[in-house]
Structures are given as structure tokens and as C-alpha cells.
Amino acid sequence: MVELANRTLPLSGFHGGSAVTSLTPAQPAERVSLRARPEDVAALSAALGLSLPTQAKTSATAGKRSALWLGPDEWLVIDEGEGGLMAVLGSSGALHSATDVSHRNTAVLVAGPGAAKTLNGGCPLDLSLKMFPVGACARTLFGKIEVVVLRTAEDAFRVEFWRSFSQYAFGLLQDAAEDAAV
Amino acid sequence: MTKKSFRIKGAGRLTPARTARFTFDGKTYTAYEGDTVASALLANGVHLMGRSFKYHRARGVLSAGAEEPNALIDVARDAARRQPNVRASVQDVFDGAIIRSQNRWPTLAFDTGAINNLLSPFFAAGFYYKTFMWPKEAWAKLYEPIIRRAAGLGVAPKEDDPDHYANRFAHCDVLVAGAGVAGLTAALSAAETGAEVILVDERAEVGGALLFDTSTMIDGRPGYDWAQDVLSRLKAMANVTVLTRTTAFGYYTHNFIGLAERVTDHLPRPGKHLPRERLWQVRAKKVIMATGAIERHMVFANNDRPGIMLASAARLYLNHYGVAVGEKIGVYTAHDSAYEAAIDLKHAGVEIAAIVDCRTHPGEAVVSAARALGIEVLTGHSVLDTAGRLRVSSMTVAPNGGNGKRRIAIDALLMSGGWTPSVHLFSQSRGKLKFDKAKDRFLPGLHVQDGVSIGACNGTDDLPALLAEAAAAGGGTLSVSGSSLYGWTGGMIGAAEGAGPETAVKAFVDFQHDVTAKDIRLAVREGMQSIEHIKRFTTNGMASDQGKLSNMHGLAIAAEMLGKDIPEVGLTTFRAPYTPVTYGTLIAHSRGDLFDPARKTPLHDELATQGAEFEDVGNWKRAWYFPRRGEDMHQAVNRECRTARETAGIFDASTLGKIEVVGPDAAKFLNLLYTNAWDTLKPGKCRYGIMTREDGFIYDDGVVGRLTEDRFHVTTTTGGAPRVLAHMEDYLQTEFPDLKVWLTSTTEQWAVIAVQGPKARDIIAPLVEGLDLSNEAFPHMSVAECTVMGVPARLFRVSFTGEIGFEINVPADYGASVWKAIWERGQALGACLYGTETMHVLRAEKGYLIVGQDTDGTVTPDDAGYGWAVSKKKPDFVGIRGLQRPDLIRENRKQLVGLLTKDPTEVLEEGGQIVADPNQPKPMTMLGHVTSAYWSETLGRSIAIALVAGGRARMGETLYVPMKDKTIAVEVTDMVFFDKEGGRIHG
Questions:
Q1: Which of these, B541, B676, B932, B961, could form a disulfide with B968 (CB 3.0-4.6 Å)?
Q2: 3-state helix, strand and coil shares in percent for chain A, rounded to the nearest 5
Q3: How far away is chain A from the Cα of B262, in angstroms, using its nearest Cα?
Q4: Confidence (pLDDT) at B120
């Protein structure tokens, strides 16, 4: 019997934030980079059980599954529940490319009244509720790294980035969270 | 002894109850909270605050704002928290501040550098272009150090900056720069429409000119009171952000504005959580520039003595700080505004010696008001000179063009040449200026971004018109009424009476760089025609104050000399920043660990635990070698090489770039991107691929595995991963958009553990399930999906060492756990961990290429000896045409070959040049250079790879590598040094 491998999360042990912003490493989730042409969106939506968004800066969520629009033919699908995204998409019958990126990405949940200010410490986007309402998402910059930002509530964001940038992302988030509390 | 105070009872807005103590050049002074260093020193009767840049002339504070050229000081809390070149006129005093003067030795009052003033004929404009040309060597060793020491500003601290800085991106509908009467009105007007407004002002308090003005009523109240009321209304609105002590220093493209907010520089004991300064990067839908105007000085002989200052500055020191700048004050003006300063001072009980006005017809209202107070007004007169060593003591006055010089004793002299609109931000926005001939000033003309200029910076002098303009700019329906006691007239630019072309007096145009009217004229006489040349020749306007006071005067003097109109001579460009911005602010969070991301692999902590030394590869930290106790790098690498060849080595290859290429046209796409063929590759197999650019040169290489018909696992070099993906995406989107294929970076999805060596299979076999690892079932260049320690994995049978090798790809979060298990197995079987250095040696022994080390962007696949990897059958691929270029198929191109030194213990230096005849005259004909060179422990000798002209035709030839101290003889060989038959790789 082969010994089974354990999972080590890139941000295990990290915690932080300030009086106005909490920073919490997200739980592991299944993630798929989904690519498809417009004519195949309907079939893939049906398979996923949500409507793949077709407008820039929008996302769709059904239960524990979210699809984030990253480009005209590109979505980041995040499943925090049972998973099985690759199989579900494979059964859609539609032409697509699905690549498992569950371990490529990791995420920090940024929440609290200072959440937007904290992100704006390194992210040049307009994160006002008017321009970036709940459900809005974007692939953008945070300091020197690429991140995907999803607004999950008025004062909460999910920030996704590649795992090797974890320490940088968390460090800058911490700095910015402290400044947001000034 | 009690020190004499120049505070006027009842004047100003500071509270005597709240004091702060600070030192200036070691002497302790008391200030009121809210004082600037300048106002506090003036209150203590101190005018001497600095020495000038070049001549070391004694200088006092000239202004009460950002334009200050003279009073540059060093402000410190302690040794590390110290900043030089701070303007005393804008630095708030805080309790415990340590202030020092600069550019003087040994003391401010007795400065030996002042000898330069006597030597000034040798330091005329452009002297350094002419004086110290010979001998050439003396420039770097002698002249420059001496000049740098003698002429200079403050000294930067050597300690690390213990403060921290912050950055904030923000968006708004309206950004208002300047919170004077125009800016406040516009901000309120905009805010009332519900717009998101950011209002910034560089001063601690809003109000702008209303801070010194006493004769303006707005909405029936004194201007200052109205301003504070508007401020509290704005602060109460949720859609308004008011930032004081914040400079809008740069106006960039698409209404992007840089703001520097000074958060703690005024606090005696700032909380540790506070950033010293915060950089704001604001994108505004609309920018309202309400930046006001700056009063000009008068250009006359010895106009730079301590005690001589701008009239509006003296008025601000009186009306805001409650400080009289002297006891017997003279005024020299070409503009009505200076009269109001005299009137205010007279009301406060200060003696006004005389108002000297170079105009014959000043504004009647101000003249009669002054005369009614008993002030002597001399119209049509000028100040021809001043006296006083460390403080002005008298002015010499005479009627214009006439005789009858009169010397008047004074201890301060206020001057006003009129007002220069602050068009810096407008100009930075690339707006086009227009010249207002009637008032000799440049005003905003065409705005090229969504911005508008209002108020004094727009030349709107009339108060009701200004208020209407400001309210309209804000976009609301706000209506504000206002009136001023006096309308202002007058103004002049250029040299005043007695400082004309016929004179040799020191009439300063640019105080900070010691440029006189004479210097500007000299520049014209030396042949400078353009203001850009005159500026550089004289350094007028090139100091850190960027010519806020000097530009217009310099321009007028040059125009007069050239006999041209001012717009013809032109205006130099205003550049950001408006005032100096600290490096700390610009760097903000990017210090220490946040300077640049340090990318760590999923195995990093395990490698560190095993004693790895790391090296930087791009942003990655890669394990370099694993020294055991007592081993140096050389010994460690030798051991690692030996163990990997004899037993096995384990290596973290996680940084290898990985791109998943998916879609029915995946093979077709790879056929177009790589030089070799991919449609013939069967699922479950790998192939080494070379990628060329359009020009035919090698761009990247790597092993590609075909997982299924429509899914490829592409690997790239570590450093090449991002650009290779961009390159592929670029071609996919622009050249081959019809292909049904998509690319996804999976570099970080997988932790990659390479196990290489004769015992590699034994090490991994017990951990792998669902795969027959035998040579027959899983030969070299195979790939399979399987399970490793219960985790779905991709297993590659590949080798970058020439030994039997496996690369285990497991989802990254499982990497550390799998690594530990493999290392445990490996240890039991005698394997070692190895790093990038050993990887380099092992691959070089096999002649495997490293793109970017053995190639440099001018090497074709054939040059590299990889001609076999270029398909002869494919109709098209990126680079196919480039490879046909005559220069790429000619004979005698540089080719990669092996080199063996005649002395086997000699390791060549990478980069060493190669020649055929070491005795030929210099410059020698160089045949190429060494690209890789190592000690090969396996072979017991050195090996090298080199690019050599016609290299493959030179096998067996002896060539030479001339070094500094010796010449090394080498023999040209093929690139494979070890296991030439290649049997080991197949196990």
C-alpha cells in the first residue's frame, strides 16, 4: 500500500489584516481555466449549471460554483463544493479547452469596510460599488503581480493569484490593509 | 537673556498656548504649533537661513510657500529620519525637530565658501563648460569633486530609511488641485451635484491667498472665515475627499494625477502605524486646476540679502503666523499688491520706511490708502542697491533715470514684480500656453485633456468673475458673491532700473542657482538663441524650485537682448514633479520583501531544510547546490555530479515553464510554432522541440509531451515561460486565428521532481501506481498519466542528464509531500539532491543546449548543431523564411562545438574570446567565444562549449583563448563529452 501524499497549502499559517480589513487564505478549491467559442457557451453553461457570463467584468455564481469572465473566450471556473469540473465539462459535448489550474492558483479573501481601500493600495482599478458591483471581476494588477479580483459582497473580495506569488501578495495586502486603517 | 520676539500680539491665527521647541544649528527656539520653520525662525528674529548654491551668499527666506529657492534646510528627528533640502517655508515645526542649515562651513554666519563670491568672475555662467577642460584626467579626480563639495545642497542620510510609505490608487469624477478661493468654490459646486470630488492643497490649511488676504469679503464674510466654512461643509459630504499637505505634483496622460500626501512630517511623535507619506495615483474624469499664482521678485542689484522677501510672504507671516518680518520695512514694487502688505504691517504697528514703486502711475486706491496711513510712497523710483552682510540694513533709492540717490535704513525689504500664473500642471498635461501680452504672462490656452483652469492660474483677476468661473467649472448651480477692497494693477518682468545691460551688478534672477541678469545676457552674447539653450548654459530654472520665480524674468531679459518678443523666444517645458517628491513616496510599498516578488516553488521549504543554497533565476529562487558540512560549492557540485551518474540525483524542476495546448488543432498549431513536426507524435510520447522566431534564430526549446490527440503538455525554459506563452498567443491570435486550439499556463499547477540516474526507477517505482515503468512499456521520451502516492500525476520519462530519468509532475500542493517520500527512498538507495549547478554540468557533459546561455538570439538550429530538429517536409512554420536568408545559410557561420583545454585542469572562463593565432597583432581576429565551461568530475577534466566560426569544420584544430595573464590552448571537439553512444539514457 502506497503512502498517500498530504496537501500543503501555499498560505497555510498566514493570517493578518487590520482594524478595517480581514485577510484570510481561501480554502482549497477546484479551478478550471475554460476556453470556448461563443457558439459553445450555451452547452457549457448547461453542463456547469450556470450561465457563463459574456460581458466583461462580470461573473456568474450558482451555489458553490462561480464562473469569472476573463476574456471573450476565457473563464476561470471556481468550484468550492464537490468539484468534478473537468468531468462535467467533458460531458458537455461542446468543443472547449478545460485545464485544471486548482493548484496553480490560490486565493485570499479580503473583507471588511476597508477591503476596497486595501486592494487599491496596489490595484489601479476603480473598485467603487458603482463601477465594480458585487459579482464584478477582473484580471488586473496588484503591485507587481497579476491577480483576478472578484467582488463577493459589498465589502468582500476574493483575490486569486498564482501560488508562487503568495508571499508577495499577502505581504502587500497586509501593508495595504494597515494603511487602509489609518 | 530673553530673546526678542517678532510676534505681534493679536495678529495671526496660531495659538500661543501650544508651543513646540526645536533647534536650528544647535540653538533652541520656541515656536507655536502651526508654525513653519521659516515663520518660527522669523518670529525669533532669524532671517539668515542658508547659503547660496554657487557663491555661498548669505540668504534668508524669500517666500512663504512652495516656490522657496533660498531657505533649504535639513530636517531631522534622529540620524536616520533626516531629510535634506527641505524648504523652510513649507516644513511645519514639530516639537523636537532638529533643523540644520546647509552648504556652509564651518557655520552659517561664517562660511569659508563665501570666497566663491569674490571669485565670481571665474564662475560666470557656463564656466564649467570652459574652465576645466584640461587636463582631461583632472576632471574626474580634481575639478568635479571640488566643485561638487563647494557648490551643493544638503547631504543625504546614509542610514536605511526607518519610515514606511504607502500607495493608494483612487478614481474620482472631479479632482481639484488647489484649495484657494477658486478651488474651494469649484469643489463645492461639483460636490453639490453628487460628484465624487477629491480636493488637494499643498498647505496645511485651505484658503490659498485668503490666508494672507485681509481685504476680500466672500458671501458677506472675511475670505479666510468663508474658506474654513466651505472646508467644513466639504468634509461633511461623503462624496468629497479633502487632502491637505498634499501636492498634486504630476499631471500625466488620460487625466492621471500624482499626489504626494505628507502624513507625519508635521507630527512630533507620529504613530508607528502611520506612513510618512502616501502616494496617491488618481484617475479623474475631470481635472480642475486652481493652482493660483506666484508673486515674482524684483531683479535689482543685491536683491538677495537676508531680510529681502516677497511682499505676499511678509503678509502671510503677519496675518497667518502673527510674525513681523522686521521693524523698519522697505517696499519695492511694480504691482499694487505690495501696498496691501505695507498697509497690513502698518496697521499692526510696524514702521514702513518707504514704498518705492518703479511705476509712475500705480493704482490710485492703494496709493491713497498707504499715504493716508502716513507711509511715504515714492512713485517713479527704484531701489538701485542694498547693503548689509547677514541681513539687509539699507536700500539705495533714486528716481528713475535721475540723480539724487538716497540711502534708507531698513531691516527688511518687501518686493513684488507682479504675479506669475502657476501653469505647471496645465503644461504637464500637454496643454498649449498662450501669451497675454497686456499683462506679460503665459496663460492656459488649449486644454488637451479633460481639464479646466480657473482663477489666478487662468489669469482671472476679477473676484466676481473668478467666483463665477469656478462655480461653473464645478458643474453645479452654486452662486458665490465676493468683493475686494482694492483692484490690483501693474507688474513687470525682466531687470529693473540699475540692473540693465550696461551694468555689472549682481541682480539675481534665479536665487537657487545663483543666476544673475548678467549671466542671461552673457549666454545671449555667447550665441545662445533658444531659451532651452540659455537655460542650460546658465542653469536658470534648473534648480529644484524649477524656476518658479526665475523663468519669466530670465525669459524677458533674454528676449530683450535678442530683440525678440517673448513668445518668439519661447518658454521651457514644465516637467513633473511640481515640487520635489521623496524617493520613499515614489517607491511606496516596494521595499524589502515587497521590492520584487520572490517566487518560491512548492518544494522550497523542503529544499531549504536540506541545506540548499539558492540562486535567483528571474524572479524564481532555485536550489543551486546542497553543500554538506565542510563542503564548498565546488566539492558539493562534484559530489552531486558523481552521485547522480553512479546512483541517482533528485532535482526540483518545478520552475520549468509549462503550457497546456488543447484543442483539435493543437498538433497543427505546434507544427507552426516549432521547427519540428508534431502530427507524427503519438499520444504517450514526448519530443524535444526547438522554436525559432520569424528571423530564424532560436527562441526557446523544451520537451513536449502528447497526452491525448488534442492535448499537449509543452515545457519551456524557466526564464522563457511568460514570453513563450505570449509569443504563442500572439501568433495564435494574429496569424492563425482560425485554429481551434487554446493555451493555458500550467507552470504553477505542477510540482516537478526530476529523478535521474541508474537507480531512478528503483527510487520512484514503489510510489507509482497504474503504470508499467519498464524500459519496454515506458521507454525514454514517454509520458503517461498515472497515480503517485494516491495523487493524479503526469510522469515523463525524460532526461537532461544523459541518465535514465523521470520527471514526476504532481499537483503543486502535493509536491512537498511527494518530494519528502522520494528523498526518503533516494537516501536509502544512496541518491543525492542536486541543484542547478550540477544540472548545468551534467547537461554540458552531454552537449545539451541551454537557450540563452549557449545561444544569444543570433544562433540558428543548424548553428547549434540541431539542424536535425528542423523539418524539411513542413510547408510552413514560424522562421521558415528567415532560415533561408543568405546570411543564415552561408558558410563559416559561428557554430556550437566542444572545446577541450590542452591542460585538463584548466577551466575556461565563460565569455572568453577565441582566436586562431595568439601572436597576431591587436586587434585580433576573434573566431567566437566560450558559452559554457565547467569542471567535469565524471571525466576528471574540464569541458567547454563555444560558438566558433566554421566550428564543425575545425574538429581537432588547436585554437587559443587569450586571457589577461596567459593564453589557453584548446582543441575543438564535438559537443558530446560523455557517453557518446548515448546508451545510458535508455537504462
A1: B961
A2: 20, 35, 45
A3: 13
A4: 74
